[in-house]
Amino acid sequence: EHSRTRRHRARRERTQGRLDRPVESDWERASLPASRGAVGRRTRPVDPRRLEPPLHFFAPLARIRTFRSVRMSAAATAAWPARAAFASAPARRSSYRARARGRAPVVVTRASGAPLRRSRSSERGHGKSAADNAPRQQAHRPTGPTARPASEMPDAGGVRGGSLSAAGGGAGAGAGAESPRAMPRGDVSANSVGLVDAPETDEETSETTSPRSKGSTKKQQRRAVGKNFIRKYRTSSRDFRSTNDVKGEGPSKIDPRVSESLERLLEAEEDEEDDAEDASSEASLNARDVFESRAGEPERRTPRAATRRLDAAASRFAALHPGAPAAAVNQTQVAQVELADGDAVVRAGVDGRVSLFRRATSAIDGANCVSSRRDDVKNVADPDLDRDLVLVSSAYVGLPPECSGITGEVTRVSFDRRGEPCGAEISWFEKNKKNDEEDVPLATLVVESASCGGDECDVVSPRRASRLGARWNEGLKHGFVLDFSVFLTKLSDPDHASAEIAVDLATSGDWFGGGHLMRQHWPLNSGCWEVGPHYPFDNGPNGVNTLVSTHWVSSKGAAVLCDPDTPYLHVGLNAPKSNMWDNLGGSNRAFGVGIQNATRHVLPMDCTRHDPDGSGREGDGSLRLQARSRFAKGKGAFQMDHPMIGWESSFDSYDEALDTYDFSGSFDDDSFIEPHVERSLERTKMKHSEVSNRCLSMRVALCALPDVRAATETCLATLPRPAAPPPPEVIRAPIWTTWARYKQNVDQKKTLTFAREILHHDLPASVMEIDDKWQAGYGELDFDMNKFPDPKEMVDELHALGFAVTLWVMPFVEEDTDAYREGSEKGYFVTSKRRHGNLKPGFFKWWNTPPVVALDVTNPDAVNWFVTRLKSLQQRYGIDGFKFDAGEPCFLPRMFETHEALGHPSEYTRYWVERVASQFALAEVRTGHGTTGVGVLTRMGDRFSEWGSGNGLRSIIPTLLTSGVMGYPFCLPDMIGGNAYFGRRPDRELLVRWAQANALMPAMQFSIAPWDAGADVAELIKQSLKVRERIVDVMIRLTGEACLDLAPMCRPMWWLDPMDEKTYRIADQFAVGDDVIVAPVVTRGAVTRDVYLTKGSWVDISAEDDDGAERKTYRGGAWLFGYDAPLHKLPCFVRVDDDARDAS
Predict the structure, then answer these.
(1) Average pLDDT, the chain
(2) What global pTM score does this model have?
């Protein structure tokens, strides 16, 4: 036996061409410690003859813990070049603990694409479906293309530059199981070679296929008989299929039951020395699980099975395609993996770079992909298909410093029910690891088809169970989900670690979305948005304002979405590069309130390339999305000081009890689970495994759509939709508020006088909103009887004048009130264990005085208490609705604590809008994050009374358009003329131009009286209101349509013609629906302006036609330079084509 072992070792050394270290005998191997077991930990001596590896196996299996690649035989290389792609894929034996997705990676080492390991998530029973028990043959039927001449054969199986092409077909996830596999660049798939194996080569089978081989046991003889039967069965089946192909009857199908039995018979040959318990448990596994290892158990010896099946597939391919040319294939480590999803193709490299492409010609539709026409297969398998790919976006992951000099490894490729590759995992491991250390990676990148897990594509791979209730990417198509994780236990500075995915801006054109900014750039890459915390602010440290979202779109059709519940999410877009002044502290940012904002620089800064006066900064050209380990001020330039520093997400507190919770149930039954409870359960499911494994995970979806409008519609489709729009009264006529005119000096007499003056000047009205200082004390929710001696009488008179009445409220309560004394005893307010200055714990400063506490909107009892008092106010005085101010988490005390622990600061904003404001039909809010499902007016943040783009008049239209892209169609611009802060009041021209800019927006809001700015201002504003009257019915109709698909009422110019590049940077025009274009003047002193009209015929309905002459018609697709726009005129164009709507 010893001499036989020596001969086997010499044969391996000759085949591989290198000298390997000696191998212990089987008896020595059996005595090794369990931690040193190479292929399986053995507990008893084993016959060495059964350990004999095949001739082409590349290395001894005694002392190695992992194997990096599988060598293929020369015959197999010549027969099937694509086999080398799978053979060269690195395969790592994964013994490390289940990471954030609750599973170990699966190593693909056979041509059929089925994994060799069983996932730990499958072991726990998560993600089981009918597909888990379906025969693999249904996904890998031998329906490949028939033989073709050598001149028509593809090149090296899609392997170029050492890359593994796993695109899986022109239709991506939509490829049908009955159709030939459509392979970009001539890839050869498992469908082409069949699932059950072809007979091995003579070299492999000469000693094992004879039933009467010398020295063979009865068990081996039975296996040999079975293998001979398999060879005969498949050979006859292949001949029968070839005959049918010639007759035009199409390929025949192997009986799935027979195929399954044969596959199990082959698998039995590889189950060496399994004990009785393993044998009985393996008999119950389905076809897929047979090839996957069980979590927490010793792994089966897989290199031999991997190589044998690859060579069998190569032999099968050679039989189907005689004369196929051999190709030289680089057997080094795979450099990138390519996947397809619909019209999108992604290439992920081991260097962490990801490229997203879109097919110039649409992929085969999933409903039409079942076809036997040979032309279809030939076109899709064109090796020059790369010419049809258009680069839409490129991204890269921010690897930690510990990954410097380390090349990633492809550790998993997963397949869907149809056998199409739908995901891959790339891992970065330590170079110098101790032998006794667990094989935990430093970082991993999972790329998964966005449509996997839906109705159209059920995933068989373990990734199915790890789509952690991610509704933020539900329904996405033509794209991919990137999940980048960094493991903190392996990092030297985990407190300042981050998992970052950065998207290159220049590759994708111009960018839109993300949130309201103090200086709203359109497009976003014309500014420098500094990296900072991404949650709603009232003038945040980096310019982020009251309304935020987590999706962005580009002019080339790229859509980027990130998980909105990332606990410590940081975002930056084209962040400024630091200079010496920044590094010395000149760029330090801090959140402030009230008068503190008077001297702050309005952010984000302009970008140098787009700043007309040259005072802008140079940006880094990336959209940076970061999941950090905590909120911190940061180091170096652009530090961010804000109230969330020191606050801990609820996801940081791991509870072992979560491991016993059953997350396999459905969260779709809203009749049993309230929406906020449902989201909480989903977030807990998604985060608890990350906490237990101490990893940061940044989840981003990248989609490639035909144009920017399609990209926007794709993002909006993932958001909740409102059940009903705002009341039509607030759309038809302006809202009037007391704030800018009276500030805190409002009283009953002034309110009634204001209403009478509005009617005296013949101006329309819908609502009279009574703002700050109507209460006896903040949070008291009752009138100050000194200022409002008879509220009921005042409200009745306002109703008689035609006004609805609303009151200004916020979630704050001051200390010297009955409301505070009652609520504090019952625990209805947000608390804090930390004092801030001289304030009591839980109190904080805001834009007014005195200090206040915040309503704990996570406490259902507190919400019910607050809402009940509001409704009581309505009943006593006849109040119609409320203006809900504040709600941003930036006002909460530092290190706050709530009744229900929050995973993300924005959850406070969501609860304020969803639990409080949504209970009133007539309501407006000013903040939001993921609150698109509430059909109330969403107001812009307070504007300054100035012309500029830094929160002045020129910021109004970009902010309106951004609201539409974010999914908030019912945008309420701030008060016309601004808030008159710091003693700056608008002059005559500014007030008129501001009213013109607002005239065709979803709603209008006045506070500064037009007649106070000049004797003729009211008459000039009436001209704009007349234009609104002609369009208002269209606007009301659009409110109903917006409830169906969140399509913006006021749309960017590129919405009308998304392929027209001239529309991308127009920041001072907008469209109402698809048939109205509005072009107000927003520059001081201007009486003309340039107007761009999209394709079609247009007329200006604001033009004077006293002589009765027909209005002039303008042909679109061109600029109208120097168009006349005097102070009294609002240029408004209506489409007059045959398909125009009744807007005119």
Answers:
(1) 73
(2) 0.72
